[in-house]
Amino acid sequence: MSGKPRLTYLNGRGRMESIRWLLAAAGVEFEEVYLETKEQYDKLIKDGFLLFQQVPLVEIDGMKMVQTRAIMSYIAGKHNLYGKDLKERALIDMYVEGISDLMQMILMFPFSPPDAKEKNLESIKERATNRYFPVFEKVLKQHGQDFLVGNKFSWADVQLIEAILAVEEKVPAVLSGFPQLQAFKTKMSNMPTIKKFLQPGSPRKPPPDAHYVETVLNVFKK
């Protein structure tokens, strides 16, 4: 073992992408193993690697971790991205949970039936502009600081920049009414670790295409 975290998932975004983002933002290099067949997935279950028969699987510090939220809490805590006390951690948790609700819609979008795509895209746009982004615009404006919690870079900031860029891919002008978020996006995108992750050739995955959707359906078919 090289000592680097080892990520097992498909060669695409899915539930692993937020983990890749968080590791990259923390400046941690990692290795990846890609599932391409149902047999590979079944073997992981048979070998007892997947506690709840689900990926993502992250091997880190001698542990085989599953469940996205648990993995990310561990990484955030280890790399000092989880606030200075319980109150800051509670705020980070609230913001992360909210962003996760929006990301869940984006995650499921590629699997929408063709006749539902337009409606689902409209839902993403409506939720982002009316429910989620106004919250973060207000937070940044009220405390006048660069980061969401405690004026220190945290897991919540990483989740938010990932969500902003993911929504912008589908709704390019989504930040037009959110000047604070525009400034936040610029600042985050220029942080050295995130800037590196946004460069071509990084472990960041492209938007899901038809091949990715087909692979997901094949690997996880019942």
TrEMBL record:
Gene3D superfamilies for the chain: 1.20.1050.10, Glutaredoxin
EC number, as in UniProt: 2.5.1.18
Keywords: Transferase
MF annotations from Gene Ontology: glutathione transferase activity
InterPro entries per record: Glutathione-S-Trfase_C-like (IPR010987), Glutathione-S-Trfase_C_sf (IPR036282), Glutathione_S-Trfase (IPR040079), Glutathione_S-Trfase_N (IPR004045), GST_alpha (IPR003080), GST_C (IPR004046), GST_superfamily (IPR050213), Thioredoxin-like_sf (IPR036249)
GST N-terminal domain residues: 3-83
EC supergroup of this enzyme: transferase
GO biological process: glutathione metabolic process
Ranges in coiled-coil conformation: none
One Pfam family in the UniProt entry: GST_C_3
Domain GST C-terminal per the UniProt entry, residue ranges: 85-209
Stored SUPFAM superfamilies: GST C-terminal domain-like (SSF47616), Thioredoxin-like (SSF52833)
Family stated for the protein in its record: Belongs to the GST superfamily. Alpha family.
Protein name: glutathione transferase
Organism whose genome encodes this protein: Chloropsis cyanopogon
